[in-house]
Amino acid sequence: MPMTRYSDFFREKKFFLIFIFILFVYLISLYSGPVVNDEKQSEYNARNIVINDYLGFSISSDTGNYMRLANNPSLLFENERYVKDRKLTAGNVGLSRPASFITVYLISKPIEKMLNLLSFSNQKIFDNIKNSLNSVYRLSGIDQTVDDTVSNLENFVSTYLAWIIFNIIIIFLAFFLFCKSLKISVFKMSSYSHTGLWLGVFFIINDITKIYFVSPSPAILTLLAVSLTIFSCELIKGNSRLKILLWFSFLFGFLNLFYEIFFAPFIVMIIFYMKIKFFDNKKKLAFFFSEAKFYFFCILLFLIPYLFWVGIVEIFFGGFFHFGVHDNPGFRILKNDFLTIFTYIINFAVYGYSLAVLSLFPIIFIFIFLLFYYFFTKKVIEVNKDYLLIGIIYTFTILLFFSIYGQIGVRHTLGTILIFLPLIYSILPSLDKTKEGRYIFFTAGFFLIYSFFVARKVFPFGEGILRNPLI
After folding, report:
1. Rounded to 5 degrees, what are φ and ψ at 215?
2. What is the mean pLDDT of the chain?
């Protein structure tokens, strides 16, 4: 009887357990040692952290500053930072995205209290971490140690754990909203034998989570931006009420305080809403003018959170600073003639999109396979035009903006591939129900291998130097 009970339990939950096992393998692989060679740390803007003989990981060189800001948000107003006469990036680098650091700070406070109660401390571990962080200074011939910037690493344990919790929440929300958009519940065991849910695993295992899960950064919110784009448009498609448009306009504006990429979901949503109203519902031009005031109100709702923050900083803290605009500086290409600007945008967009294509090559292979399948079977592809439109607008918006901005990387463009997952799902051929389990086992096997591959390759560390995301 007990064996039968365990057998029934596994049969009912086997795909969910396999799903959890794959995530566990991915997590362990991420922390099973640095992926960047010690000699390449400075060149690749990476830092290696060794905890012990079995655990370690690589982080971005920006992580140190993001940890400082989440540990002490008042550093957002730090205008200059010098360590041993070396000018380093000041804390105001995070002034344009304060909500991420403040949120992590709030999460860290109860964790800090728990750690104090447990009185956990292992000096050997902290010595290992310091030694590994100092290696880049030794190899680069820089007269500096981690002690010069951080007096006590133990004070940052709660901050790092808070970042991990924050990242888990963001990744879960991205996965959850994607599945919900496809009418799949992640809380039902039966959903884990559903092909659509397994497509959503690409929101969990990718180059963004590979670097920004272990190396805290607001850039992980790119995943949420993509899933919210899909979800908001799906809601509008089902019920094109102005209330939904207004609510999401404010939400996207508020989320811009976490990471300034939510302009893209906002633009896609507005255009998609207009498409539903004027093309699908065949409203006349006069109706557009009658609703124009609501579109302006949406823009206002989108801008209010950010403008409110800028106003507070301007009035009470000496002026607003945006690192990407003031120090980078962004948008400098606009000073050139039209042909130069156009050529620059095309080259940057092609480069950025090629990174995304190579980073998520399995999705491209799935799409190509489906095209061949329909070609050889002579079946008609029933393309969901709404999903196609959403994907095209999002991709165009991201590539155009960041190409003009002058910085484009996989953290920006990965979403231009993920955004087409609903389209791929819509053209998947119907599976034989008796063989569906076999397909899921094959898919799970692929993700098991893929999770290890993504976790242990070097890229996106060295992005801009490494041109191949598969390395």
Report:
1. -120, 85
2. 91
